[in-house]
């Protein structure tokens, strides 16, 4: 028998062991998920032969069975000097065709911050990578400049260096422009990204190997986003000559993959870039998911028949490994984008490998399509894999397999007659909606790569519907030049005209979130009317009115102007309260705090439950009827709360004041948002004067007089003990306040001189002798509070000058009684360089008065709300102006409560110019070869 001290609680030990096993299993599951998580394709950029400059244009080319092959352009080399169909000489080529890009000597150096002379020393392949990567990021709905400092990896395939070979003299410090190793590095440097930056060369499989490497980097969390692709440019005939002599080139300049007449391939040039991201992150971020990368694999032929001979067993192995990594069965593959060399031996070995793996267990009712984009655009070599990858993504997106050009009769060494494998043509299309697809790519040195793709779910990555949903949206456009800005507007107009049922809110979301914002800007408010939006874009595109370049070093200075009593009305901010959670939360906070000070809840006073919730219905009748909101005890805290909520909304969008100025009670809000006192203290101060004034007789009146202050001062001179100037609002607008009888007498005298006046909607006459009885009691309240210096430049309404010290109890006592020096405050701000005035309040009263205090066109006058107008439209009007003035908007927060789907839109219209190394002698290839032949002869003689 064991002693009590040795007794063990085996049940507890077992429970602990099970918990530890469960935790270990969870860790294993996490590791396994990380190793196998699909990678989302979220963006594509491309520049391919046949004038293909977008994924949409590539799909049209493939869908129509197009052929982008043409004769060698005269600006590359003299094709007649090197063409010999019989190859009777070692320095001849048997082909005069290829897939070429137009204007490869063109570039937009200013856009990328590169001088024209430096750009001329940079290999056009590097320049293509810069442009197409930018386009791919925009296609993904990403602002490229926002990637700075991120763990973004760059993985690029590149093999040729014709630009360097063509130079007869190497420019000083041109090493970075001609070194292939810099292809990825230059892009990482430009974007200021910190993930891996790798250039690789495995010949024709380079860019698919880059995809494999990028997927590993993403799964190992070295990268959170990856730019992957390849590029190829042909400037010299040397490679054509070498491959022609080796029997690799097609005599008629066509890749006739799988056909009995296949006799080689045709070279092509281009650039393709895709943007990759872990699926979980793409879903979380609401990315537009084009396809899923399920698995990849890379291997080598080993010692086969010859260094450049394909190895069928190695090709089978790489396909099997990719399927295993993807966890996809071989009979689930619906389409294979083959390498499609276009040589009799290469085609036969590749298709036998495909059939050997994917044919296992596959029945005739499980068809699988075969094709190769090389038949459309040629073999892009280092960019060939990415071209095939992009085409396959488009097949999955479109749910169809396009025809395979130049195919008539199957290669006799390939037997697919009694198999489920089909090669579509224009005359014999196949009805397969692919879900899974494989992409093959092989390098002539033996490096094989295969990837497995899956179609994305329809609507994959779409943003959820948030609280706020507005018909009105803000579409922004920006560029680095005036010409580019108008060209961009024209491209948008054309795109919208040709797009089936575009979502305007999604378009606006993408322009705001997914584009960089440069110094030439335009903004359009769309009401959801597509024809009207297109008309607005076209009008701007053809307008001759200049927008002007913003000077980032001279950012406009914003002054917030806080409105005072008299501007309140029922339902102010109601639309925002129902659509903007930040506004609502701020107003709810104020309502909660004020319940200790008010007899009725603030929200019930602001938005009375009259059996009608919609703002504006019956508004005129309600506004004309007596209501608690007209009482000072409610009017002042209501204004404070609405203005405070508006500030919080503007700040959430990135709009911060550089200075503040309040008009009368508006100064309480200005003080609160600059840290002079807390929100609780500010609300208390806004409510306390009303409570105190409620103990006084209601004998006051405030009237706006539209005349110079000298005239008004003379009119009230006889009533100085009963009437005072309450506010100097402008050169011809002054407010008087005081005893109703005395004010009426002064007004009668003014109106007899045909001077216009308007009574203000207030219950008590502040800033007049009538507040004297409550000043002592108010001061006693103030003495119990703590005050701090304002954290921002603060215009005192007492002086109209900047107030740097502590705004203490004495200040706020005087503030209650003294006149508002609004006109002087505006002048002080203007003299200090403030050129944007944004009214924080329910009307545009201060903005209208402020305009009259300064010369015309010296400032921008904006409002938050306008009585009788749509709240959201009022905000958008001001936001559009702020954007055009160069203020940076926090678009993520702006769209936070109404998330949308990123959509494909026209990309930046680069303003290209000739950037070619003419000064260092990029000579015609015939001349270069002649010089080299002479040098070789001299060396032989020595």
Profile the largest sheet. Answer: 11 strands, mixed
- Alpha-beta content class: alpha/beta
**Distance from first to last alpha carbon:** 104 Å
Fraction of residues in β-strands: 15-25%
- How helical, in percent, are the residues? 25-40%
- Overall pLDDT metric: 90
Count of DSSP H/I helices: 34
Gross morphology is elongated
Low-confidence spans: 462-469, 610-626, 920-924, 926-942
Report the radius of gyration as a whole number of Å. 37 Å
Number of strands: 26
Lateral arrangement of strands in the main beta sheet = 6-5-7-8-1-9-14-13-10-11-12
Notes on the protein architecture:
This protein has 942 residues and is an alpha/beta fold. 39% of the residues lie in helices and 15% in strands. The strands form 6 sheets. An 11-stranded mixed β-sheet has the order 6-5-7-8-1-9-14-13-10-11-12, with helices on both faces. Strand 13 and strand 14 form a beta hairpin. The longest helix has 27 residues. It is elongated, with a radius of gyration of 37 Å. The termini are far apart.
